[in-house]
Amino acid sequence: MQIGLPFLNGIAGKKRNQMISVDLGSRTTKAVLMERRGEIFALLRYVLLDAPIFEKTLSPELLAEHLKAVHEALGAKTKFVTLSIGVNDAIVRPVELPQIPVDEMRLVLKNNTRGYLQQDLPNRVFDCHIIPPKAPAKPAEPGKSVAIPKLKVLVAGAKKELVNDFQTAIRDAGLVADHIVPGLIGPANAFELAMPEAFVNDSVALVDIGFKNSSICILQQGELVLSRVVGIGGDKLTAGLAEMMNISYAEAEGIKIGMAPEIQSTLETQVLPLGRELRASLDFFEHQQDRPVSQVYVSGGTARSELIVQMLHSELVAECKSWNPTASLQLALPGQQAVEIEQVAPQLTVAIGAAMAAF
After folding, report:
1. Following DSSP, what letter does each residue of 268-310 receive, concatenated?
2. Global pTM?
3. Rounded distance, CA 12 to CA 357, Å?
4. Mean pLDDT within 173-196
């Protein structure tokens, strides 16, 4: 079940045949143009562009210009856009709610964020994805009254002003806002598409290493049971490496992605804090659920470094591997993009997963 959480009411209920999906990064914007072809999905084109430079907040005007550039670079005919909200700009939590319509769930959350989400969250918009209930282990005895169980619901919330700004920017770019989704759910959706058996049957951790932050989502048989954002990303690893080796940032980035065993101990110093944070999340899940995480799947630009993935494997004491979010997509890419997709794919994870929410 793909997680939608669109933050938009009317338009998002319709399924699209073609979709632009944009993952706004703090350094690089990743965007894909995807198409539904019967039961399969095709990747028609992708683009990586430098993110807009701004001081405090990204204005709707600046974002609109950037989205125009993305649309032009993709050469897309469709105007429908799905936009991801950054991992620090949206909360995503599993909660239990009464069996009421989704519109009422949103109101309940808005009026009692402390009760359901353990913190005051004023001026937020909320959306809910009902997790399909599993069949009970044994049927109720005849004549015995049964309490109506609560629903397991995945809740997302974001500042109303931010969602409004995104909608304004999309409209001013001459495009149509179809979905606005939390970037945190992108890897889960993309993983379900790429590796459906592992998604349905296993307990896995999805680690997406971004520029400023890394996210970890733990899925238990297709259900998102824990998510966390860690303030360590590829930028911190590269900057730390540059400082320790007294080289430029660009040189450090090349060394980080390439496999240079001689810099292993220097790189380990930078990767260790990230590994510890991720291990703490795994320990919490395993203690709460009394089951191990069978596999850790790593995505994001930094996942292109086999050395870093190996270091995380050592620290997490769990099998770690990078994975390809385009694995089950039909690739209908133009010349050079078809050649480069294998190298670029880990960076497109969030954009592909957000697109699946719209399909």
Report:
1. HHHHHHHHHHHHHHHHHHHHHHSS---EEEEESGGGG-HHHHH
2. 0.90
3. 10
4. 94
Tokens in use for 189?
A: 């959706």
Q: Which two structure tokens, joined as six digits, stand for 339?
A: 């050649």
Amino acid at 62: L
> Half-sphere exposure of 212 toward its Cβ, with a 13 Å CA cutoff?
9
Rg (CA), the chain: 21
Strands 330-331 and 40-50: parallel
d(CA 164, CA 109): 19
Whole-number mean pLDDT of the chain? 89
Under 8 Å between Cβ of 359 and 13: no
Q: What is the β-pairing status of strands 28-37 and 18-23? A: antiparallel
Which domains does the chain possess? 10-95+156-195+327-358 (3.30.420.40), 206-322 (3.30.420.40)
Q: What angle do CA 310, 313, 315 make, to 5 degrees?
A: 115
Following DSSP, what letter does each residue of 162-193 receive, concatenated? HHHHHHHHHHHTT-EEEEEEEGGGHHHHHHHH
Q: How far is 298 from 12, CA to CA, in rounded Å?
A: 30
Residue 60 and residue 169 in contact, taking contact as beta carbons nearer than 8 Å: yes
Contact 212, 231 (CB under 8 A): yes
- Token pair, residue 67, equals 């989205």
Question: For 60-159, where are the alpha helices, taking DSSP H only?
Answer: 60-74, 102-111, 113-117
Give the integer Cα–Cα distance in Å for 24 and 51.
7
Least confident segment among 51-60, 79-88, 273-282: 51-60
Tokens of 112: 């009692």
Q: Which of 172, 173, 165 lies closest to 68 in space, CA to CA?
A: 173
